[in-house]
Amino acid sequence: MASAPATHLILFIASLVLAVAIAGTVVMEVNSMSDVIDNRGSSVSEEIGTEIEIINDEGTSEGTYNDGSILTLFVKNTGSESLSVDERSVDVLVDGSYIPNGDIDSVERVDADSNSWRPGGVVEVEIHLDGIDVEGDTDITVITSGSEDTIRIHVPEE
User: Fold this and answer.
1) Is the distance from CB of 94 to CB of 140 less than 8 angstroms?
2) Same structural domain for residues 24 and 61?
3) Most buried of 10, 70, 103, 156 (most Cβ within 10 A)?
4) Which domain holds residue 32?
5) Does residue 91 share a domain with residue 13?
6) What is the domain count for the chain?
7) pLDDT tens track of the chain, all 158 residues?
């Protein structure tokens, strides 16, 4: 009869140890998920604040496509975050073909003498198109910091 309370006490202590172990694991996982959600939220917030717009005239290819191999784009930062101004931070697609960063000749501020692309600022992106035929209706996409914009120009056949 004395062994029954001892058995109950051992089972009670074992169940408490198991409950504490499970609770500790759950708390650690909840903290880990909370950190992931905070990081993702910050990233999404930054992407929301990053918006660009290509401000070239879509009605004409003049001024956009020059000399048969140079593509000049004017891109405005319409978001609320400052962006980087360099060739490595901008990706360009011409009719779905990726233009390597080495073919982007320059990314320069045209409205201010600054290395920071502040909201409202405009950059000139100059691209050398070696080996890419640009004729007829042409889609040009600029991507930077998770934001993108596309224009369609018509390039007359030569």
Assistant:
1) yes
2) no
3) 103
4) 1-48
5) no
6) 2
7) 567 788 888 899 999 999 999 998 999 999 888 888 887 777 666 667 788 999 987 777 676 777 667 888 999 999 888 888 888 888 999 888 888 888 888 888 888 777 788 999 999 999 888 777 777 888 999 998 888 999 988 877 76
